[in-house]
Amino acid sequence: MTIFFKRKLMILAVFFGTVTTVTFGTFLMTPTYEAESTLMVKMGREHVYQPEVGSATPAISFDQERVVESEMQILQSRDLLARVIESIGVENIYPDFESGEDRVIHLENSITQMQKDLSIAGVKNSNVIRVAFQHHDPEMAAKAVNLLIDFLLERHLQIFSNPRAGFLESQVAARQESLNDARDTLQDFKQRHGLSSLQEEQRLLLAQRRDFDTDLKKAQNDREGLKSKLGALLRQISRIPKQISLTSVSERQKVIDETKGNLLKLQLQEQELSTRYKKTSRRVKNIHNEIALTQAFVQEQEAQFMDRVTKGKNPVYQELEIEIHKSKSEYHSLESRMKQIHHHLEEIDAHLAKLDALKKELDTLDRAVDAHEKNYAIYLARVEEARVSEEMDALKMANISIIQPSTLPVAPIKPKVGLNILLGIILGGTASISLAFAAEYFQSGYTRPEHVSHEFGLPILVSIKHNENLT
C-alpha cells in the first residue's frame, strides 16, 4: 500500500495512457469482415471403385474423415487460391501488393496472404466443411468464398472424373469381334465331329453300357453256376457204373441156397452147444467139423458156378450224360454271349473315350465363348456407366452440396471494441502496477523508518519528514 500511495501518480498515468492508447487504436483500426460458407460432402459415385475388367460388382470405399480431409486439402491448394485471386484481380483483392514489382511476386504474396486469411475446418462428428475468409471489404470476402467453392466443384470433377467412354467403346468392338470368332470356332467344331448334343449322346451310351454290364454280370454268375453243376455231375458219374446186369439164371442156385440154409442152422447149433459144453467136447467138435465141410462145399460150388447174365447201359448214367452234355452246351453258349458283350462294351468304351476327348475340347471352346461373352457384357456395361458419368460431369453433378452460400457480412469481426478496451484496462493495470514496483525496487534509500530499524537492528529515536524545500 505504501508503494501504491507513493507511486499513485505514475500508476494512474500509465494506466490511463495505456487504456487511452488501446481505445484510440481500436477505433482507428480498419474493420475486418469474415464471409462464411458451409459445404456437405456426401458419398457419391466418385468413391465407388469401378474396375475396367473383372467383376461387375462395384466396390464401395468410403471413409468420412479421409474424404472430408481430401476436400479440405483441395480447398487449400495454391492453384485454386491463385485462380480465385486472378479472377478477382490482385489489384482488387490486395491492392497493397500492387507496385512496380513483378506480377508473379505479387501473385505469390497474395496467395500467401490469402492462406493466412482463409480458414477451412471440418465440423466435428459430421461431414460438413466450414469455409471462412477475412477481408477489409465485405463484398470482396463474400465473392472470394463463393468463387473458391465454385472452383472447388470444378476441380473436384476434374480430379475424380475419368473420361474413358471412347477407350471402352473401342474395347467393346474388339470384344465383339473376339466373341464372334469364338462362336464360329465352336460351331465349326460341332459340325466337323457331328455333335448336336454331346451330353445326351454320352447319357445314352452310358445307359447302354450299364445294361450290357448288367447282362455280363448275369452271364458270369450263370457260368459259375453251370461250372459248379458240371463239376458235381462229373464227380457223380464217375462213381456210377456205365453198364448194369439186367437179368440172371443159375442151375445150381437152389442147391447153394439150401446148403447155405443148412450151414446157418449148423452155426446156430454150434453156438448153443458152446454154451453148454467145452470146446474139447466130442459133440462140439463134430458140429464144428460139419460146419467146415458145409462151408467148403459152398465155396466150391460158387467157384464152379457159371452164370448166364444179360447186361445193358445204366439209365442213371445215361441221364447224367444227357445232363452233362446240356450243361456244357449252355456253358459254351454263355461264353459266346460273354464274348459278344465284351466286344460291345469295348466299342462303347472306345466311343466314350472319344467323346471324352471331344468333350475336353468342346468344354474349352465353351469356356472361351463364355469368357468372351462375360467380357463383352462387362465392357458394354462400363461404356454405359462411363457415358452417364461424363454427362454428370458435364452437368457438374458432384458429391459436394452447398449448405449455406456466402452472404455479405454485416458486422466486422475485427476490431472488437469491448474486448479491446477490456484488454486495455487489464494491460494498463498490470503495466502500471508492475512499473510502480520496479521503480520502487530500483530506488536508492528507504521509504519508511521501520525499514532502517529492521535492516540495521537499531531503535529509532527521531524521524524527520522529507521536505524538498530544505537544502
Task: Please give a quick description of this structure.
By secondary structure, this protein is α+β, with helices and mostly antiparallel strands. It is 68% helix and 9% strand. It has helices spanning 2-6, 8-28, 64-75, 78-88, 90-93, 103-117, 138-160, 165-193, 198-238, 253-276, 282-303, 315-394, 417-442, 449-456; strands spanning 33-41, 48-49, 59-60, 118-122, 128-135, 243-249, 308-313, 400-404.
Protein model, in words:
With 471 residues, the protein is of the alpha+beta class. Among the domains are: 2-166 and 392-440, FepE-like (Bacterial polysaccharide co-polymerase-like); 223-317. 68% of the residues lie in helices and 9% in strands. The chain has 14 helices and 8 strands. The chain has helices at residues 2-6, 8-28, 64-75, 78-88, 90-93, 103-117, 138-160, 165-193, 198-238, 253-276, 282-303, 315-394, 417-442, 449-456, and strands spanning 33-41, 48-49, 59-60, 118-122, 128-135, 243-249, 308-313, 400-404. The strands form 3 sheets. A 4-stranded antiparallel sheet has the order 4-5-1-8. Strand 4 and strand 5 form a beta hairpin. Helix 4 (78-88) crosses helix 6 (103-117) and helix 10 packs antiparallel against helix 11. The longest helix is centred in the last third of the chain and has 80 residues, at 315-394. It is elongated. The model has no long low-confidence stretch (mean pLDDT 76).
